[in-house]
Write a structure and sequence with these properties.
The protein folds into two domains: 227 residues, Aspartate Aminotransferase, domain 2, CATH 3.40.640.10; 116 residues, Alpha-Beta Complex (Aspartate Aminotransferase, domain 1). The chain is globular, with a radius of gyration of 21 Å. The protein is α/β, with parallel strands linked by helices. The protein contains eleven helices and 15 strands.
Length: 360
């Protein structure tokens, strides 16, 4: 039997082990100068004033909403197609999550529908750049300005992705990134908030350490928690950041291989990503009428694939009975094909071959 192809492949053999050893040798283990250096490099890469590392992309979203003043009884607008952490961040603060449907044929919040759900309780809009695809940030920011709302970009899947105005995640009050394993670059777990506003930066630094800006001369001025990162993980991140351009190039090439290889197939279609405009397709996403049968067929051929997660309105605790017709095709037919920056061309070609066999 052929060797197994996992749905995601990445690597940590680019100097990360040596960087970790150096951090430990210099007695930099908890949050310290290596974290600060990783933050400086990230801010420089993205062209923003400030970057604040934290434990995960989910934590980054939670911290950003805290800075935006979201509290119990407020409302936060979220797309119905996203990883559920986006909605959970608001829910954990006691806010009501208001879902908005996605664009036709694209699992990105439909900015034209946002105003329909704004009320006097709305506090923030959280557009999500799923799989590196850009939400309509110009329109969203205009709406936010009109209604005096905060905008927090969930760019967890969009590090390195661009639109005409620059990097995704840098076009709002705050942008949040993830460095979990299934991302373009990874620190194992980790997240980051970026901003150009000093007032947000200072508050983020404080709430990351129990709300205390100066831990030597502590004052209990505001609530926070232990959301701190570590120098060990930052050492990994610095080495991974060095190869980010190569990773983006490889991911784009994988997308092109699938685009060409699936062009003649009628039962499965790639969900498009505009790589010509700078969007980075971190995952290979497709719509398939017979998704469950295909996932099973690939598994029998030692190839791992994954169905999309359900639409968020199906989570019972959100108490949402509305209908989101443009989200449904993605929840019902969406799937991930094998991908990742270390997925070999041999593996991709084998997947494409099996997809043609399934068609036959």
């Amino acid at each position: 039997m052929d060797s197994r192809i996992n749905w995601w492949r990445t690597s940590f053999n680019n100097g990360e082990a040596e960087a970790i050893a150096n951090a430990i040798a210099m007695e930099n283990v908890s949050q310290g100068p290596v974290v600060a250096e990783f933050e400086r490099r990230l801010a420089n890469y993205l062209g923003v004033s400030y970057a604040v590392m934290t434990t995960s992309g989910s934590t980054a979203l939670l911290m950003s909403l805290m800075i935006a003043g979201v509290k119990h009884g407020d409302e936060v607008i979220v797309p119905n197609r996203t990883w559920i952490a986006t909605a959970h961040a608001a829910y954990m603060l006691g806010a009501k999550v208001k879902f908005v449907d996605v664009e036709p044929g694209r699992p990105i919040i439909d900015a034209g529908l946002i105003e329909e759900v704004i009320t006097d309780k709305t506090k923030a809009i959280m557009p999500v750049h799923m799989c590196g695809r850009s939400a309509d940030m110009r329109k969203i920011n205009n709406i936010a300005e009109q209604y005096n709302l905060s905008v927090i970009e969930d760019a967890a899947q969009a590090l390195g992705s661009r639109n005409i105005d620059g990097f995704l995640g840098t076009q709002s009050d705050m942008g949040c990134f993830s460095f979990s394993v299934a991302k373009v670059i990874s620190t194992g777990q980790g997240g980051c908030i970026v901003t150009n506003e000093k007032k947000y930066y200072e508050k983020l630094i404080a709430i990351r350490t129990q709300g205390v800006g100066d831990i030597i001369n502590a004052q209990w001025d505001e609530p926070g928690f232990n959301f701190r990162f570590t120098d060990i993980l930052a050492a990994i991140g610095i080495e991974q950041l060095k190869i980010l351009p190569n990773r983006i190039e490889k991911i784009n090439e994988i997308y092109r291989m699938y685009e060409k290889g699936l062009a003649e197939l009628t039962y499965i279609k790639l969900i498009p990503v505009d790589i010509q405009s700078g969007e980075v397709p971190v995952y290979i996403e497709a719509l398939c009428e017979c998704r469950d049968e295909l996932v099973s067929f690939l598994e029998k051929n030692n190839i791992q694939s994954r169905p999309f997660y359900p639409d968020l309105n199906f989570a019972k605790y959100f108490n949402d009975s509305n209908h989101y017709p443009e989200s449904e095709p993605f929840g019902n037919r969406g799937m991930y094909l094998p991908c990742g920056p270390e997925q070999s061309e041999v593996n991709i070609n084998r997947v494409i071959e099996k997809l043609h066999q399934f068609s036959a």
